[in-house]
């Protein structure tokens, strides 16, 4: 017959299992693709889309300017004004594998985002891990940012 200590350990293990299951239940709704992305690209609610707001003025701004994502995620740049914006990756700072990935997927630079609500969506499905530095150009002075794809051991893209 099990003693009190065995029952207590069993109860703790059961509680831990329930907590683990509860934590894995729903995907983060803030990262789910909207209906346009689902219809246009065939994304599902399980796909993760990180959003970056792009604004002009005296200086171009991306919010957030630094982003850490997991491989297989998407990044959506959205213009919040009526100014022209372009996102260009700094190919000189990329590894050969990263550069090849962006070139083959035709994602080295965006088309001009000229209307409020214009979007540029990048797919990091099968992307090599590492830091992807980009430049934001438009009507204002250019600014810089970075997307770090997990697997590099680098947690904060602002570290560089």
Write up this protein.
It is a single chain. This protein has helices at residues 4-23, 35-41, 96-104, and strands at 49-55, 61-63, 66-69, 74-79, 85-89, 119-123, 130-138, 143-149. The chain is globular. The longest helix is centred in the N-terminal third of the chain and has 20 residues, at 4-23. Helix content is 22%, strand content 29%. Strand 7 and strand 8 (143-149) form a beta hairpin. The chain is an alpha/beta fold and 160 residues long. The protein has a single domain (27-155), classed as Immunoglobulin-like (Sandwich), CATH 2.60.40.420. The strands form two sheets. A four-stranded mixed sheet has the order 2-1-4-6, with no helix packed on it. It contains three helices and eight strands.
**SS class:** alpha/beta
Tally of DSSP helical segments = 3
DSSP strand count: 8
Instruction: Please provide the ordered H/E string of secondary-structure elements.
Output: HHEEEEEHEEE
Shape: globular
CATH class: Mainly Beta
Number of domains: 1
Mean pLDDT: 84
